[in-house]
Task: structure prediction
Amino acid sequence: MIELSVIIPSRDAGPRLASCLEALAEQEGADDAFEVIVVDDGSVPPVPANLRAPADRYALRVVRRDVSGGIAVARNDGWRVARGRISLFLDDDITADPGLVAGHIAAHAGTSNRIGIGRLTTRVAADADWLARQFAEAWNAHVRALDGGRQLKAGDCYGGDLSIPTELLRHAGGFDEQFSRSEDVELAARLIENEATLTYVPAASEHHERKHGRAMLADARRNGAMATTLVGRHPWLQAETELGSFAAVGQRQLLLRRLATLLRIPAERLATLGAVFGAGRTGRSALTLLVQLAFWSGVRKSVDADTFARLTGGTAILMYHGFTPAGARASRYVVPVDRFEAQLATLLRAGHRPVSLSSYLDHRRSHRLLPAPSFIVTIDDGYAETEHLAAPVLRRLRIPATVFLVERAVGHRNDWDGAGVLAGRPIVDDAAIARLRADGFEFGPHSARHGQLAGATAGVLDEEIHAATSRLSDRVGPLVPAFAYPFGLADDASRSAVAAAGLIGLGVREGLACPVSDETQLPRIEVRGTDSPLRVVLAARLGGTRRLARR
Result:
């Protein structure tokens, strides 16, 4: 009985196709359980119609298209004549390990609504150029992450080794033939929206990459051009794909991206410096930069200037603590109010747009893009001087702000710092909170007692996160659904507790908040009282400045 149909779109493959078919003749534990369908997508000369499997180890059919219709059309032609309950799509340059077919059959046992993502490594020729070798290294690192249990996403659904129940394909209408790229991810997104699940099939296969580096950059550029159509169809994919990741990198990498994008430097021009980049960490960073430049040049051609700015902007979530009168001494955690005003006013003059945290979260959850560049002001702990020092500045500049309150400390003092400028500092009381709320301020939870949550027991986490948030809401009114970790420290358990409470987590790791950012620990930028206005502007564009000079 045919359980699985292997569908291989092929065009002018020659020896590649022969190698692929030979590997399938070595399958173990799948005797008579699979067939192979080669879809000849306009090859010249054509694939022989009477092509037979090596040693007649399996049933083989050839479906011929006189004119190439593209990969989506070819895959659809294949599954529509498939006899197997499962359709396994392979590229014609894949070498399957002996357990591949049996592994995919096992992955679909007892279910009819699952997508099987095969373990697919890549290998390049010995004479491959620097860029092709770096591509292969990066792809295989991605595979190792999947081996290690990294959560599967729609973007992992690569059609070179992908299995889907044939009836599920029929119900969904198969691959969208309007997509010349990413047709596999688009199909997976539709299936996921209809409650399909993803599973990893560790049975291995290997892709033999024969493209040179410049061809791979051209592919990246075409991927960028198609990405906006893909995300336009499925907006939630922005949080899982490159289109939501421009600013989700380190400060030096982002600086290079912004400069190269601004100057419109072709990735191919920089690729000629491959010998300088070399291998290792520098080589990987160079590859990331080149691929992203090619990808985003494709994006730029497919959207207007405003959309491109929103896609590449990222949002700077600024973090303040205490304030002191104008002219007073500045410190890391306390900013003189005149410097505070200069920092924010300079941001505004530089074209940065203030948004409230609640507005940002609304945009994020509805997969809408904010104007760019944008920034958010957050104030931790809620010291009493926030009302009479910070609030007038924010009011004058028309900048919203969110204050994160320590629930048990409201109306009391900072008793969690044993020393330093914040120790013993008075905290706003209920009356001040009401006045600030009337002035447009938002509030969020910052735990019950400002204790360290990393390593805390489940009972402590429930008290510090869920219970504290509930009590604070009862006391001061509606809260922004975001939680600021005390001391910025969080582990897997505390992040899970924040998510279980229906909250977004805010840490203190520098960076810009992007669609791909981890919602249990969004990055924030600590603004120090000693920071110059220009440094704050630079930090808001690069996600901070502290790591720019680090080795």
About this structure: The first strand starts at residue 4 and ends at 10. The chain has a mean pLDDT of 94. The chain has 19 helices and 18 strands. The chain has three domains: 4-210, 211-303, 314-540.
